[in-house]
Amino acid sequence: MEMQQQQETRQQSNGEQYNKNINISGEGTEYGFCGICLMILSGFIILITFPVAICMCVKVVQEYERAVIFRLGRLAKGGAKGPGIFFIIPCTDEYRKVDLRTVSFDVPPQEILTKDSVTISVDAVVYYRVQDATMSIANVENADGATRLLAQTTLRNMLGTKSLSEVLTDREYISAGMQTTLDEATDPWGIKVERVEIKDVRLPVQLQRAMAAEAEAARDARAKVIAAEGEMNASRKLKEAADVMSESPNSMQLRYLQTLTAISSEKNSTIIFPLPIDMVTSLMSKK
User: Fold this and answer.
1) Which CATH number applies to 103-203?
2) How confident is the model at residue 10 (pLDDT cuts 50, 70, 90)?
3) Whole-structure pTM value
4) 32-43: b or e for each residue (b if 16 or more CB lie within 10 Å)?
5) Which 3 state secondary structure label does DSSP give 70?
6) Nearest-CA neighbor of 123 among 198, 181, 193, 208?
7) Three-state SS for 88?
8) What distance in Å separates the CA atoms of residue 251 and residue 264, rounded to the nearest whole number?
9) What are the distances in angstroms from CA 28 to CA 42, 77, 81, 190?
10) What is the DSSP letter of 131?
């Protein structure tokens, strides 16, 4: 526990030192004597070649873009520029455009060993956008590539702690967990992860057959149970009907006539009339 706390403290101190080394805001930047002289010289050249240099100094960024300006290798004051028109000094300034629109990418299928030792192939889709253009340029070399690699690693780590049943049933929970983990990890890069969705879970063919056989056996067993319950309920109702009819002999005769009516409606060429039950009963009593 103490070692883990020391490691976290060391990581926090390293992050603070990293943020101190990189001045994200650009405030308090000192260019030095040579830098000031170079900027004055660049301004003098712009004045001399004014009609031509103005085309090189004026830049335009779209509504969904921001421009991060580096002046003599340092971030310029005021942060990212845009949208609209901004000015640069051709000899000393360099700028990079950053797109702020939401970007989506597919995480390639990952071979993952689940908690219950089942190998599955899972792919996902991630939606993210740049929320801080300066941090996405200054804190990471390639924000898009780093986010893609982190998404693959997070997908493997997240599903490696889940069983197969959890992966198949708790996709929304897993997606939310991946989004939270990715958002926390990419926050120093100026990246905002908006949504993560698991697209497909591919199982081995043998496992698919085994699961299909298990599901079919469960359905057959459930069907047999339902049929048995139906037979039991029918036998109970039949017994109740027999008890009611035994209490009233006339009801038995009415049932006998209804049966004859049903037989005659079927257009049979031969109809067999059974002896009335009361007649059979009287003969049995005489014997």
Assistant:
1) 3.30.479.30
2) very low
3) 0.65
4) eeebeebbeebe
5) strand
6) 198
7) coil
8) 20
9) 22, 8, 18, 22
10) S
User: Collapsing DSSP states into helix, strand and coil, what is residue 252?
Assistant: helix
For the cut 70, the answer to whether the pLDDT of residue 279 exceeds it is no
User: DSSP labels for 28-62?
Assistant: T---HHHHHHHHHHHHHHHHHTHHHHHHHHEEEE-
46's tokens: 């712009």
Q: What are phi and psi of 108, to 5 degrees?
A: -60, 150
The gap between the terminal CA atoms of the chain, to the nearest Å, is: 99
Domain boundary assignment for the chain: 25-99, 103-203, 248-287
- Residue 66, SS3 per DSSP: strand
Type of residue numbered 20: K
Mean pLDDT of 49-53: 74
Question: Cα 72–78–84 angle (5° rounding)?
Answer: 100
d(CA 251, CA 243): 11
Identify whether the C-beta of residue 119 lies closer than 8 Å to the C-beta of residue 77: no
> From CA 277, how far away is CA 248, in angstroms rounded?
13
Q: What is the DSSP letter of 189?
A: G
Parallel, antiparallel, or unpaired for β 119-130 and 103-113? antiparallel
Q: What is the pLDDT of residues 153-194, one digit of tens each?
A: 999 988 888 888 888 888 888 999 999 999 999 999 999 999
SS3 (DSSP) at 22: coil
